[in-house]
Amino acid sequence: MTIPSFKKDMFVMLIFSAVILTMPMWLKPLGAGYPDLLQKFAIFGIFAVGYNILFGLTGYLSFGHAAFLGVGSYTAVWSFKLLTMNVLPAILFSVVLSGIVAAIIGFISLRRSGIYFSILTLAFAQMFYNMAYSVLTPVTNGETGLQLARTDPRIIDNMLSEAGAGLPSPGLFGIQMSGYSGFYFCAVLLIIAFFISQRIFHSPFGMKLQAIKSNQTRMKYTGYNTRPYLLTAFVISGMYAGLAGALMATTDPLAGAERMQWTASGEVVLMTILGGVGTLIGPLLGVGIIKYFENIFSALNEQALLAAYSFMPDWLAKMMVTITSPFVGEGWHLTLGALFVIIVVFLPGGIMEGLGKIKNLFRKRPPDPVEKTLVEGQIQEEKA
Amino acid sequence: MSNIILEIDNVQKSFGGLKALHNLNLQVEEGKVHAIIGPNGAGKSTMLNVCIGRLAPDSGVVTFNGENVLGKQPHEINQAGISRVFQTPEIFPDLSLLQNVMIPAFAKREGSFRFNMFSNLCSEKEVMDEASHILHDIGLNEQEHDHAGSLSRGDKRRLELAMCLIQHPKLLLLDEPTAGMARHDTNRTIELLKKIKETGMTKVIIEHDMHVVFSVADHISVLAQGTIIASGTPDDIRGNPKVQEAYLGGAHL
Ligand SMILES: Nc1ncnc2c1ncn2[C@@H]1O[C@H](COP(=O)(O)OP(=O)(O)O)[C@@H](O)[C@H]1O
Ligand SMILES: [Mg+2]
Prior knowledge:
The structure holds 2 protein chains of 2 kinds.
Chain A: H1 6-21, H2 23-26, H3 35-58, H4 66-82, H5 87-109, H6 114-133, H7 137-140, E1 146-147, H8 155-160, E2 171-172, E3 175-176, H9 179-201, H10 204-214, H11 216-220, H12 226-251, E4 254-255, H13 262-275, H14 282-297, H15 302-308, H16 314-324, H17 332-346, H18 350-362, H19 369-383
Antiparallel strand pairs in A: 1-4, 2-3
Helix pairs in contact in A: 1-9, 3-9, 3-12, 3-13, 3-14, 4-5, 4-12, 5-6, 5-12, 10-12, 13-14
Chain B: E1 4-15, E2 18-29, E3 33-37, H1 44-51, E4 59-64, E5 67-68, H2 74-80, E6 82-85, H3 97-110, H4 125-137, H5 153-165, E7 171-175, H6 183-198, E8 202-206, H7 210-216, E9 219-224, E10 227-232, H8 234-239, H9 241-246
Parallel strand pairs in B: 3-8, 3-9, 6-7, 7-8
Antiparallel strand pairs in B: 1-2, 1-4, 4-5, 9-10
The structure holds adenosine-5'-diphosphate and magnesium ion.
């Protein structure tokens, strides 16, 4: 367990950026090289990387991060409606506002730890979800969801040019946010998000967060006021979630309350644990795997399964379809649940732990102490 | 007479019906090693808990460096200059030994909160060197990159001692620093304690091992049933019949 040097960190960043930016190429053979899915990878990647700053470093398990996702989305759509279709102000407002909301929720929830903290965050997120359908409908537009309209004021855009005939779409100074350009925009933000996360992990601040996770009592008697540390981590991860929410709205300018449902909060927990809590890259692996398989499994139906089993005898194929069909399509969550159980039971450290074990298998064993002294003895004999 | 750095004035603390501390008075002189001895359950650890803000007493006052510490948060008391080694080691088991000692060094340097997320740990040479140096002093430098959780109990205690020493506290509280250690480890700790004594750091040390007590203490107080029954130089205590009666069951020291 050594502390990596700045040089090594920069090398990792270089590789990371290359891997992310070439995703359209190397994911093509896997059938995942199209912009919609790639954008999803990048956006959920940002969400999970931010979530890991809280959960991975401090060990505080929030079950309410979807609330910040929702705040980010609604804020972005409002920015499109009121000000401009340019994504930069939308993103800025989303990150700032979700940070403020996180500061409030965090301030209250962090008065407790462990399961009580988790329940408090869950309660807050459910409150937001319910309010989106009730008292907050003027802001959220209730069940229909918040959408763009041709008659929106868009003050800044309309000052600069005449309103067009059709519904405008979000963009960055003329670059559209759909298709590959949208992916590259999200990818650049993911790289920045990962860079910031790496800096936090390898800073004194990050080490103190890990120390809080390891032994908070010791931290207090060592002279640290732990509450502001935890709150800072909470707010940063809330801002990451707000950014992810804003990006969801830029790629598809529509915000609905279902984005704040508890299942969305649960999903980021799954992704983080599946990949490896507290490791830099683990949560991204979790995102990749879950979103990739979600894409495949949820598209399958009985016809597709029958086609896949067509090489089998008829009766066997029918039986296999009966067995496997509950796990695909709408039933994808069943597969996800089963996968999660397997990981938590057999690999609590997630995929990163699995990779570590494989690496250890291949690493050359250090020479036996007895053998080593024998060899050294021989060398000395030879010298003499 | 020199300065009194820690003063416990008429402190009471009950747990339910049990009077753990009863009219407790204690004065610790600056620069001295003050040993507290007493049977199990006498209230020694409870006394330290009151001093560091872990427990609030029912009544009484605790003054450190002329300031009342009661009602202060644990981190404020530490920042004021009191560090403690606990009876059961409190370390960071998931961090490396080096990180375990870097954390208190940062607390000393930066105070109770600093948001320095863009500085790189590797460029904190000063703190790292200091941490390596202190690990060398306690003989754990070769394992500096291992997880602290993998250490033996005796090594964990020594690590915790190093974590306190790196803060250069004005007052160091040690709760049975050699309990559960092998003879050889105990001797090593005594050497270490003697070395710190030369720095003039004030220490309160709770200890069962009389060999340790008489080799490092300037002053000894005997605590029994929540109150001090005798206090004096090691020679005074050795010859005190009340102490032999209450604590040593008549055995000679
Ligand atoms: N937090 C607590 N709650 C209830 N009883 C306690 C607590 N801490 C200590 N005690 C009791 O107070 C008495 C003194 O304990 P302690 O200070 O740990 O003794 P020792 O001198 O052995 O360190 C014991 O009887 C112990 O059971
Ligand atoms: Mg005790």
